Amino acid sequence: MKDQYDVVIIGGAVIGSAVAYYLAANPDFDGSVLVVERDPTYLKAATSLSSSSIRTQFSNPINVKISQYGSEVIRNFGEMMQVGDDRPDLGFHSGGYLFLASTPEQVQILKENHEAQISCGADVVLWDRAALANAFPHLNVADIELASYGRSGEGWFNNTGLMYGFKNKARSLGVDYVTDEAVAVGRDGDTVTSVTLKSGAVVEAGTIVNASGPRAALTARMAGLDIPVEPRKRTLFVFDCAHTPEGTAAVNQGRLPLMIDPSGVFCRPEGRFFLTGCPPVEDPAVDWDDFEPRYEEFEEIIWPALAERSPQFEAIKVVNQWAGHYDFNTLDHNLVVGRHPVVRNFLFANGFSGHGLQQGPATGRGVSELITYGEYRTLDLTEVGYERIVENRPFLEKAVI
Predict the structure, then answer these.
(1) Count of domains in the chain?
(2) Is residue 169 in some structural domain?
(3) Is residue 17 domain-resident?
(4) According to the UniProt entry, what is the EC number of this protein (predicted)?
(5) Is this model's pTM higher than 0.85 or not?
(6) I need a surface site. Which of 149, 169, 261, 373 has the fewest CB within 10 A?
(7) What is the per-residue pLDDT across 24-44, written as a single tens digit (0 to 9) for each?
(8) Is position 121 within any domain?
């Protein structure tokens, strides 16, 4: 590690490593990059504890396009991230997403979302009750009025594989990583100048990128800034199924999608098991070190909803569970990407609210373009910039799960 870098990235999981990769891989960028990561095991990183899925079924075109690019990167990841003979395989399962609507309000949202998705070229179809029953005969569809199904470009993949692919490639291209913790940010008027590390080292920085996940607000405060991001706990459960419905679908070679029930409970295949979770009844901010699962959610919320949705989900049992954190944007549940409007050399890449893995590639590319060119050159992320935080102007996304 040197004592001066053109760019210092605070946070080295998927977002920070994506920014580092896109900077180092760009022939127009000739600066030095340091990534500061407090926990190189990543055991409690939002990246490692996520459900690692990607979808194009959003309500805002910018979010659709962000995920379309993410899907492209996942498809070509081995070639893009090859280092020597190592070509990382993310094990992408193109199972698709299936949103179910049972109320007039949910139906209207699916229809409006579908218009936005189709306008971006997403491969999504709307099904009535009969078409849904034909595609997935294990489901109880008596209460379903409309379904939205992603036929391609959606699925799930290796979460840490994505992160380590970016990290390993970035390091091979000259990016420095240090195991340490940022404890202070130096600032001279409207310019950040340095990062002080827990080890006592002080690193001069031309640009600082906040890629701190659920700890984003802590990093911003070091620079005298603010961002409405806090850790929110989400518990995931893996269950075994006595009579699995996997293989019974009439589409996608029998494979089941990631299903989002009208109750908010979601469920998808995970090898021979299933992965499931639900929005919590109460959703307070939690301590940054609180990873105790909410065990009661399975018995009280998830199992009843799944058993009602399919008789094949009546005989199931939990075989594993864990809790992770969303870096939850309390303003509008959407990513915040871009420069601070006053402190221009402090950039945000925060607030993904559970979508960081799928939005990581587009975010990394976009932040690298701002640093290299002073503007976006590919996908314009201005809509999700920091200015809306200052103006208290939510950029609402109706398809948040």
Answers:
(1) 1
(2) yes
(3) yes
(4) 1.-.-.-
(5) yes
(6) 373
(7) 999 999 999 999 999 999 999
(8) no
